[in-house]
Design a protein that fits this description.
By secondary structure, the protein is of the alpha/beta class. Helix content is 56%, strand content 12%. The longest helix has 20 residues.
């Protein structure tokens, strides 16, 4: 269209442009809205005169310079992966068919190439609940529910945009990468910025704290929804309940000063319920057990071949659990994994890379894991190996790293190894770091651009090259050392926690353990004929806990436990033990109880158990209680605990769990005898 306008000496109508290009007049008008600012930025005026048509106006020198810039862009070639992402973007943002010729012309490839790309993309499109329509003379389009389209756009953005794309470029620098520009436009960058500020203000209203990736995913989904609504792409009427009963949504819309149709309010309320509070009614996800078991097998595989003990490294296990589950989910739906650090990882950790790849193939043989993902897993193990080397620290620094948990820890230990005067007091997300009071730290180290002045942070790569080490050393010498407080640095120990900090945390953790175990009891029960199903037993099981508020709300808690069980049985593999758990507004404190029946109890059509461990917690559960309950659930993979739960009395079980939790707390606090 731009080339056509440049060649025209007189006005040309939108209908004529549409006929020549092979698209609709509506598409021409939409494209003109994008073309006009581009022309204006190059000193060219786009005139649109009703009844006459469209023409451009500029002096010859300006037009010639612009034509040369177009010629230069024509030499740009997309990779196959980039081309497919752009094809998906173009089809998802349009609600009408696009000619195959138009796609081929835009991507500078032949029509058979685009057709082949569509063949490969069709399976991924179907997995997202959508349909690829291709008809000769009609064009190509993606059909399906608006909700599925929004989810697909969000998925593309989450997997192809870095946090530096989303939260960097805060001074409106030009975006040169076409995929980045396209996706930022589709999620609505301005909506994204406003949402980020609004959600931050509402942070205290949330019943739980989100991880950085969950927070980013929520922002993207909300921003995509508002952008699609702005373009009149709306969800189906009557599909959702009224969303006005979600206080967080009302507060959010008030802050944004946005009025929405009732269907969209309902859609956003469901989005907030599913994304902002993914574990609001759960203590442990039903598929966490296989994840934990797989991670433990992988660690054992690697440590056997390295002849080093890695199982006691809680940080390694926790990092792998948090990383592998979402990463493998993305692989299973065909989303390509990017790892710009793959080459240096293979170079620096060649032997470890081979071991980890073999371990992943043995433990996760059901899924084809690419080298890019193996590289990220290697970084977790590399960080664990580096942690074995002790080092002192002196300067308070916070770390912001968005490439993943493993890369942030690897960067941390590399910094500690190369520059022991740095004391990394914590790993923060981008939104936390930008709001930390300057008195809390001396230095921010980030792997992405932050919306801060350059003298407040330094940007490094996760691999910390020798050049970057010198750069960091010079920054510390020229800036940080001039304002550091020697007294504070001397008082803070190598763990990044002062003795007072550790004592306070010890008090918090031990208080949770004592309260939890104090209320723990074992109930040996006889299963009566005709009452072999879980729904028959739950009311009695809850009454045995002996809490008045439990008995008063027994029916509601029973319904929640049954609904949780329907999502997937929590029977521990190769045992007769099952885990029942929920979080509820009708529960006032964390509770733990064990029920042992004389014969198997039916949990579902294909699951039964004789022993049931019940965990209950309030809806708003503090992080320490949730962490320790999750640790107890992880213990269920230990054969020793299974034997204790099956045979020991209440005192014996309490003793076993308390010893394990004591060991966990010592490791967590880096406690030294």
């Amino acid at each position: 269209m731009i080339e056509m306008l440049l060649d025209q000496k007189q006005e040309i109508t939108a209908a004529d442009i549409a006929a020549i290009v092979g698209t609709s007049t509506r598409t021409v008008h939409r494209e003109l809205a994008d073309i006009e600012p581009l022309l204006a930025a190059n000193g060219i005026v786009l005139h649109k005169t009703a009844g006459l048509g469209i023409r451009i106006e500029a002096d010859n020198e300006t037009l010639e310079r612009f034509k040369q810039s177009l010629d230069q862009t024509d030499s740009f070639e997309y990779t196959g992966e980039e081309r497919k992402v752009l094809v998906l973007c173009r089809l998802l943002e349009h609600d009408e068919p696009i000619k195959l010729f138009s796609l081929a012309h835009e991507l500078r490839v032949t029509m058979p190439t685009v057709s082949h790309d569509l063949d490969e993309l069709e399976g991924l499109i179907i997995k997202q609940g959508l349909t690829l329509v291709r008809k000769r003379g009609y064009g190509v389009e993606i059909n399906g529910p608006e909700e599925a389209k929004r989810h697909f756009i969000s998925l593309l953005a989450f997997n192809h945009l870095d946090d530096s794309d989303l939260f960097g470029q805060f001074k409106d620098q030009a975006v040169t990468n076409p995929i980045t520009a396209q996706l930022l436009d589709m999620i609505g960058k301005e909506h994204f910025k406003r949402l980020e500020h609004a959600l931050w203000e509402l942070n205290d209203d949330w019943p739980s704290t989100l991880s950085e990736s969950d927070y980013t995913r929520l922002l993207i989904k909300l921003s995509v929804a508002l952008t699609r609504i702005e373009h009149d792409c709306l969800v189906s009427a009557g599909k959702y309940d009224n969303g006005d009963n979600i206080p967080l949504l009302r507060s959010l819309l008030d802050l944004l000063d946005i009025q929405l149709p009732i269907e969209e309010k309902s859609y956003l309320s469901q989005l907030l319920g599913n994304e902002a509070f993914p574990e609001s009614s759960l203590l442990i996800h039903h598929d966490d057990m296989p994840t934990i078991e797989g991670v433990k097998r992988l660690i054992r595989y690697v440590e056997e071949r390295l002849h080093m003990s890695l199982m006691e490294d809680r940080s390694l296990e926790e990092g792998l659990i948090q990383h592998i589950k979402p990463a493998f989910q993305r692989i299973s739906v065909g989303i390509a994994i990017r790892n710009p650090m793959l080459a240096p990882i293979k170079k620096d950790y060649g032997a470890l890379f081979s071991i980890v790849r073999s371990g992943v193939q043995e433990v996760y043989g059901h899924i084809q894991v690419p080298d890019e993902e193996i590289g990220y897993i290697v970084m977790h193990f590399g960080a664990s190996l580096e942690r074995l080397k002790p080092f002192p620290r002196k300067i308070r620094a916070v770390l912001v790293c968005t490439s993943g948990i493993g890369s942030s820890k690897l960067l941390a230990v590399k910094i500690a190894k190369e520059l022991p005067q740095i004391d990394l007091i914590g790993h923060y997300s981008w939104y936390e770091a930008t709001r930390l009071p300057p008195s809390r730290y001396d230095l921010i180290i980030s792997t992405v651009d932050l919306p801060l002045e350059p003298d407040r942070y330094i940007k490094l790569s996760p691999m910390l090259t020798p050049e970057e080490t010198n750069k960091l050393r010079a920054y510390i010498k020229g800036t940080t050392l001039k304002k550091i407080s020697p007294a504070l640095a001397a008082d803070t120990e190598a763990s990044g926690q002062s003795p007072m900090d550790r004592l306070l945390l010890l008090q918090l953790y031990s208080g949770v353990v004592l309260r939890l175990l104090d209320g723990f009891h074992v109930h040996d029960l006889t299963l009566m004929e005709g009452h072999e199903h879980l729904d028959n037993q739950l009311p009695n099981m809850l009454s045995l806990i002996g809490k008045p508020y439990i008995e008063q709300n027994s029916a509601k808690i029973t319904a929640q436990l049954l609904a949780r069980e329907q999502q997937g049985s929590l029977v521990i593999p190769d045992t007769e033990l099952a885990l029942l758990h929920t979080r509820s507004e009708w529960i006032e404190e964390p509770l733990l109880a064990l029920y042992r029946y004389d014969r198997p109890l039916k949990l579902s059509e294909d699951a039964e158990a004789r022993h049931l461990l019940m965990m209950l917690g309030p809806l708003k559960l503090d992080a320490y209680s949730l962490e320790l309950l999750s640790e107890i659930s992880a213990m269920l993979l230990l054969p020793d605990l299974l034997a204790v739960l099956e045979n020991d009395d209440t005192a014996g079980i309490k003793l076993f769990i308390s010893k394990k939790l004591e060991q966990y707390i010592k490791t967590k606090l880096d406690w030294r005898e």
